[in-house]
Amino acid sequence: MTGGYHHCEEAHTHRYLAEFDFRYNHRVKLGVTDIQRRDAALPGIEGKRLTYRRPDESAHA
């Protein structure tokens, strides 16, 4: 892996691959615009939420 990804835990490999699958299938060379890419990505967000640990919380609590 090169660029921003220097390590990917096995448990998250499916997420890494799904991201690059999306990027490859929605690239400019295929004629996909930024608006079309946005519209394709937004349904994947529905029903999900990001959760963050507070800085003072332990990662393994």
Structural notes for this entry:
This protein is extended. The chain has a domain of about 35 residues. The chain has 2 helices and no strands. The chain has about 60 residues and is mostly helical.
Entry summary:
The protein is an all-alpha fold and 61 residues long.
Fold topology:
Layout: H1 13-25, H2 34-41
> In percent, how helical is the residue content?
25-40%
Number of distinct helices: 2
* Beta-strand fraction estimate: under 5%
Give Rg in angstroms. 16 Å
Distance between the termini: 31 Å
H/E series, N to C? HH
Mean pLDDT level: 84
Structure class: mainly alpha
Low-confidence stretches: none
Q: How many beta strands in the DSSP annotation?
A: 0
Main pleated sheet: none
What is the 3D form? extended
Quickly list its features.
single chain, mainly alpha, 2 helices, 0% strand
